[in-house]
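Worked problem 6 (solution included).
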Amino acid sequence: MNIINNDNIEKSDLFPCYSLNLYKFLKDIKLIFPLNSKPLINIKNGKKYYEFVKCKRFQIALDEWRNNKIENTFVFDKKRGK
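Solution. The predicted structure is:
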């Protein structure tokens, strides 16, 4: 999904991703891309993050990530991101 004009997106429709491993999982494995190609910086804590638009496909991938994390069965090599 490509978003040309993100002016109409509500902040509640965005998911801030601070985990580089989750970012790689979403982008490289699930082919769900963030709104921004470069990380944003949280002005309160200085941490880098990416913003993803919450949608059904994103939620399914996030649920899979959380289940894999709980069961300690990751789908990709965390060191290489693949």
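Discussion: DSSP finds two helices and three strands in the chain.
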